[in-house]
Amino acid sequence: MGSIKGTIKNVGTVETKGDFKFRKLVLNTGGDYPQILSIDFTQKNCDLLNNYNEGQDVEVQYNLRGREWTNPQGKTVIFNTIQGWKIDTATEGVSTSQQAPDRADLPF
Question: Does CATH number 3.10.580.10 belong to domain 2-99?
């Protein structure tokens, strides 16, 4: 579990695959060495992004997820995901927070 601060570059729309819902948040970390990060919010956590827009400064709580997959040619590939589960922003010195009641895991 970790947290990262940055400015929202993009809030994606909710996408579904069967019963699985996901939504991407693109964050620019700024600073001397800015990083552009794609953070996945899944299931009920998708709704946490409803009140956030491009240009807002936020702090995201996340879990790192990873898995192995062996392709048909026998090569093993490792996938990593940053999975967000909480997002905060500061408005006129007052911190507001959005957190889902449970943390949904990726289905793989």
Answer: no
**Tokens at 26, concatenated:** 């693109």
> What region, left, alpha or beta, does residue 74 occupy, with left being phi > 0 and alpha being psi -120 to 50 degrees?
left
Residue spans per domain, the chain: 2-99
**Residue pLDDT, tens place only, 68-98:** 999 999 999 999 999 999 999 844 443 445 5
Q: What is the pTM of this model?
A: 0.77
